[in-house]
Amino acid sequence: MSEPNPAIRTDIPHSARIWNYWMGGKDNYDIDRVVGDASLEIDPDISAMAVQSRQFLIRAVSFLASEVGLRQFLDIGTGLPTMQNTHEVAQSVSAESKVVYVDNDPLVLAHARALLTSTTDEGVTTYIEADFHDPENILQAASQVLNFTQPIGVMFMGVLGHARSYEDMQRIIRTVMDAVPSGSYLVFWDGTIDNPNYVKLCEEYTKSGGVPYEPRTKEQLEVAFEGMELVEPGFSPITRWRTDTAQIGSIQDVSAYGGVARKP
Question: Residue 39 is part of a domain; what is its CATH number?
């Protein structure tokens, strides 16, 4: 890696960089690899969750772009660019798709400037430096790019465990979804407490100095879709959401649930 931005803390682990490490990426530091390896010892399934969460993103965005016809996406808590990012999937379906990424991590933003660029001349790909705890700021900035009179796909992909509280998680989602028009969609997934190893991993990560991540029950997470129309197969394990039936027998389940829902 090149020399880090002075604003980037290389002595404290960061979930986006650890996630990148689990997915085989190179955008991480020694502390991230140390904590990542220790986490794998606690929960060997976590690397599978990282990989399968990206597969869920690909299927969800493909569904919204191709079957629903969405042309606008707001990806909040983007994380580090890897393979098949939201804009690449959406613009491969429709060249004019607009994608706005949101994150507040200096390393993520540095890579966003270099890598998160449109894959087509017709499309728009941009990023906002913002904290999801301030959704009003995100909405104001996103409105400079996205048309809030037309449906938007809002995405929270495995990030809201960083919310300061369960009530804050609900507030963030509700604020954003209240601002988008009828016909918009919410794409949301997060880890659950089904697997005690995953719960322990999150506890140990907090002790390492990283920003705490709070796993919740499936029922607590499903509240995110309250008042919306869940797309089949509903709020389900991310490995089972519209997966090719030929693959189901070989896919490893993980303690993570996700879904896609339409705002009436």
Answer: 3.40.50.150
**pLDDT, tens digit, for every residue of 27-74?**
889 999 999 999 999 999 998 999 899 999 999 999 999 999 999 999
Residue 194's domain spans which residues?
A: 15-262
Is 2 a residue whose pLDDT tops 70? no
Q: State if pTM tops 0.70.
A: yes
Q: Is residue 94 part of a domain?
A: yes
Sequence-distant contacts of 165-168: CB under 8 A, at least 24 apart: 166/214, 166/216, 166/220, 168/133
Q: First CA to last CA across the chain, in angstroms?
A: 46
Spatial CB neighbours of 191, under 8 Å, sequence gap ≥ 6: 49, 158, 161, 198, 202, 213, 215, 255, 256
User: How far is the C-alpha of 174 from the C-alpha of 237, rounded, in Å?
Assistant: 23
The verdict on whether omega for the bond into residue 233 sits within 30 degrees of 0, i.e. cis, is yes
| Closest listed residue to residue 86, CA positions, set 113, 117, 128 | 117
Q: How many folded domains does the chain comprise?
A: 1
CA neighbor of 186 nearest in space, from 200, 170, 197: 170
